[in-house]
Design goal:
Layout lengths: L2 H18 L5 E6 L5 H16 L3 E7 L8 H14 L4 E10 L2 E8 L3 H47 L5
Parallel strand pairs: 1-2
Antiparallel strand pairs: 2-4, 3-4
Length: 163
């Protein structure tokens, strides 16, 4: 085997390996200690989506003014969020106070590659379902046009001037 062919094949193997490799991304979600319940649910929904995609999530609670003297509010909020999403992710680093902010990192139970594969399968299933529905709707349109044809002939026989 010549060296050029060997070099080309090794480059192809490396390219394939990179294609299947997933980049670990850390998404960040910022909260305040006195967050409204609806806002909390919205932020939690984003965290759930990130964890389902296989990304890590860094949750930051920002304290302002007098809130800095009550870090237990932020700690409780982070614990509540962690318990709400424990079926999708785990606490990778526990809550830590860092100046005006308190930070916690959640990691997903599924790896990024597994999440990407599941998303592809779900997308293929939805596409197949849509194509199945469009095929049945085309058949029903054909059935209606066949049913309308004899009715049109009957009208033409009754009123020859219109035809």
């Amino acid at each position: 085997m010549d060296y050029g062919k060997f070099k080309y094949e090794s480059a192809m193997k490396a390219r394939e390996a990179r294609k299947n490799q997933a980049h670990t991304v850390i998404k960040e979600m910022k909260l305040r200690p006195k967050i409204d319940p609806h806002d909390y649910d919205t932020k939690k929904g984003h965290v759930v989506r990130f964890l389902k995609q296989g990304d890590k999530v860094k949750i930051t609670i920002m304290f302002r003014g007098r809130e800095q003297s009550r870090p237990e509010l932020g700690y409780r909020l982070l614990q509540r969020l962690a318990s709400d999403v424990e079926d999708l992710g785990f606490v990778e680093s526990s809550p830590k106070q860092d100046g005006r902010n308190m930070i916690m990192v959640l990691g997903p139970h599924k790896k990024k590659t597994e999440a990407m594969a599941e998303a592809r399968e779900a997308q293929a299933a939805r596409k197949a379902e849509r194509q199945g529905l469009s095929a049945t709707s085309d058949e029903s349109v054909e059935d209606e046009s066949v049913a309308e044809a004899p009715a049109a002939e009957a009208v033409a026989e009754e009123h020859p001037a219109e035809a």
